[in-house]
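User: Hi! I'm working on a homework problem where we have to compare a predicted structure to a textbook description. Could you give me the structure for the chain below?
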Amino acid sequence: MSIITVKQVKKKFSTLEVLKEISFSLEEGEVLSIIGPSGSGKSTLLRCITNLETIDSGTIVIGGDTLVETNNQGTTIYADKATISRIRLRVGLVFQNFNLFPHFSVLRNITEAPRHVLNTPKKEATEQAYTLLEKMGLADKASAYPYQLSGGQQQRVSIARALALHPQVLCFDEPTSALDPELTGEILEVIKELANEQMTMMVVTHEMAFARDISDRVIFMDDGLIVEAGSPDQVLVNPKNERTKRFLSRFGS
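Assistant: Happy to help. Predicted structure tokens:
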């Protein structure tokens, strides 16, 4: 069953076409990695799916609800506020740069959205937060503030914060790009654990070995287009497209 369906999505910034008729679907329990050079449209695609950017045309359906569609007259129509709010709860996004509230403790960073968005009672939200912190190996950091944590610890808190809203899909926008290489492994292990638990995920990444290990499917994007898509072996080991081959040659693949 498709949790996310994207059809012929286009997006421009001024005269620059960033997405050019992008179409794909994400199935329940699937891990989809999106790779490609900087400026290829990967992060913009995630931002359109999570409604942080609007599209110019196309259709995005999430969990059976249509977020946006283009009618026969070429007008792009977004869903009403109630539907958009419902859709937003289905998709969590983990940012490159953590985006934690610096003036909130770790515990409050995780409990704030469940309490105010889902109306979860304080006691329940707190218990859930401690469970998530235990899962992330951060049970002793509940009272710490973001500035007291390493980059890897902050990213694990941001993953816990996203999970606290019980999303159907978790999206990662280059989750290790802001980390020192020695901290990258701990985040990749967390994502692997989530994959083993059948969490549905979309991961924009520049970690090719990780994408091969974790993914059910891989999409290679370049210049706003999906150039190649398939299993990790098809795309990362035996790519057919010359552009894909050139890109992967930089990684020794």
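For your comparison, note the following. Residues 106 and 142 are 5 Å apart (CA to CA). The first helix runs from residue 42 to 49. Good luck with the assignment!
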